[in-house]
C-alpha cells in the first residue's frame, strides 16, 4: 500500500495472524498464578556440580559410560523441545492469546532449553563426543550408536508436521495434546529422583520433575478453560492426541510401540542391554514394572481430567487399559513435547 492510500484520520486495520498490535489482559488469575510460579521455580544447570559427575564417570568402565551417555542421548530426542515451544510462543502472539498464557509459554521454552542443556552436559562429562565422534569397538557399541541416530532421525520426521499442526488444530486441541506427555514426565522424573544414587543426578531429576509438574498444570489450565466449548470433533482429536503422546514417549519411558516408530530390528534388545549396563553403574532407571506403574498413574490423572469434560480416554492395549480405539498414528499426529 502506498503512503498516500492511507487515511491517517482512521484507526489502521491490522493484518490477521500478526504479533501487532500489542495487547494485554490481566483477568485470567489462574494463568497469572502459574506464570508467577514458573518464575519462582527456575533453576540453573550451571549450579550442578558437573565435575562431580565427571569424577563419578571416571570410575566406570567404557560400556557403563556408553550406557549412561546412550540414555541421555535418547532423552535428548524428547528434551529437544525448545523450538517446539518457541514456535508456540510466536503463534500465541500472532493469535493474541491471554497475556499470562503467552508468558507461561515463554517460561516453558526456557525450561526446555535447560533440559536440553542438561542432556548435552551429561553426555559431555560422561562420554565426550558421543555419538557423532564416537568410534565403536564392537557390535554392541555400533548398534547402541545407531539406536541413538535412528531415534533422532525419527525426531526429524515429525518436525515439519509440527510446524503444520497450527493449520490443522485449534490451540486448545494442540495444547491439551501435551497432557499425556507431561503427566508421564512428572512421574518418571520423580521416580528417577527418588532412586538416583548419584547426588547430582538426584538434584537434576528432582528439579526437572518440578518443571514437568508445572507444565502439566499448564495443560490442565488450557483444558479447563477450553474443554467446555469443544465440539465432538475436537474432543475426538484430543483423544487421538493423548494416544499419540503415549506412542511418542514410550520409547524412553516404556517400550516403543509398533505405531509410528521406524527403528532398527535390534533396537529393543540393545536398549534393554544399555539400561542394564547403566543400572550396574549406579545410574537409576526404572524397571519395566515401575515404568508401567508410572504410565498407569499418568493415565489415571489424565483420564480423570478428560472424563470431567466428556472426552474419551484412548485405549492403551500395551498396558491392558481399554478405551476409545485409536489407529494409524502418523507423523502429523505426533506433537514433539516432554
UniProtKB/TrEMBL annotation:
The lineage of its organism: Archaea, Thermoproteota, Thermoprotei, Sulfolobales, Sulfolobaceae. SUPFAM superfamilies: Ferritin-like (SSF47240). This is Aminobenzoate oxygenase. GO terms for molecular function: metal ion binding; oxidoreductase activity. Residues 180-255 form the Rubrerythrin diiron-binding domain.
Amino acid at each position: 500500500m502506498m503512503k498516500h492510500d492511507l487515511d491517517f484520520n482512521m484507526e489502521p486495520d491490522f493484518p490477521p495472524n500478526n504479533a501487532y498490535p500489542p495487547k494485554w489482559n490481566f483477568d485470567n488469575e489462574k494463568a497469572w498464578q502459574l506464570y508467577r510460579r514458573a518464575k519462582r521455580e527456575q533453576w540453573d544447570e550451571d549450579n550442578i556440580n558437573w565435575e562431580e559427575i565427571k569424577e563419578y564417570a571416571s570410575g566406570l568402565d567404557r560400556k557403563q559410560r556408553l550406557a549412561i551417555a546412550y540414555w541421555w542421548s535418547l532423552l535428548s530426542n524428547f528434551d529437544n523441545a525448545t523450538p517446539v515451544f518457541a514456535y508456540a510462543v510466536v503463534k500465541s502472539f500472532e493469535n493474541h492469546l491471554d497475556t499470562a498464557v503467552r508468558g507461561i509459554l515463554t517460561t516453558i521454552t526456557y525450561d526446555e532449553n535447560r533440559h536440553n542443556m542438561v542432556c548435552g552436559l551429561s553426555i559431555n562429562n560422561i562420554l565426550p563426543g558421543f555419538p557423532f565422534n564416537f568410534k565403536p569397538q564392537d557390535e554392541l557399541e555400533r548398534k547402541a550408536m545407531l539406536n541413538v541416530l535412528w531415534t533422532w532421525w525419527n525426531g526429524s520426521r515429525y518436525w515439519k508436521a509440527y510446524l503444520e499442526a497450527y493449520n490443522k488444530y485449534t490451540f486448545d486441541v494442540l495444547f491439551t495434546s501435551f497432557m499425556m506427555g507431561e503427566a508421564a514426565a512428572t512421574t518418571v522424573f520423580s521416580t528417577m529422583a527418588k532412586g538416583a544414587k548419584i547426588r547430582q543426578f538426584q538434584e537434576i531429576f528432582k528439579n526437572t520433575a518440578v518443571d514437568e509438574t508445572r507444565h502439566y498444570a499448564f495443560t490442565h489450565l488450557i483444558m479447563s478453560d477450553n474443554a467446555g466449548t469443544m465440539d465432538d470433533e475436537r474432543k475426538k482429536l484430543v483423544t487421538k492426541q493423548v494416544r499419540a503422546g503415549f506412542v511418542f514417549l514410550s520409547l524412553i519411558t516404556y517400550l516403543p510401540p509398533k505405531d509410528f516408530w521406524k527403528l532398527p530390528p535390534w533396537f529393543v534388545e540393545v536398549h534393554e542391554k544399555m539400561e542394564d549396563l547403566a543400572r550396574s553403574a549406579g545410574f537409576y532407571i526404572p524397571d519395566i514394572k515401575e515404568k508401567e506403574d508410572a504410565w498407569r498413574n499418568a493415565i489415571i490423572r489424565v483420564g480423570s481430567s478428560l472424563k470431567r469434560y466428556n472426552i474419551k480416554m484412548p485405549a492403551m492395549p500395551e498396558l491392558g487399559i481399554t478405551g476409545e480405539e485409536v489407529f494409524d498414528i502418523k507423523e502429523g499426529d505426533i506433537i514433539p513435547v516432554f
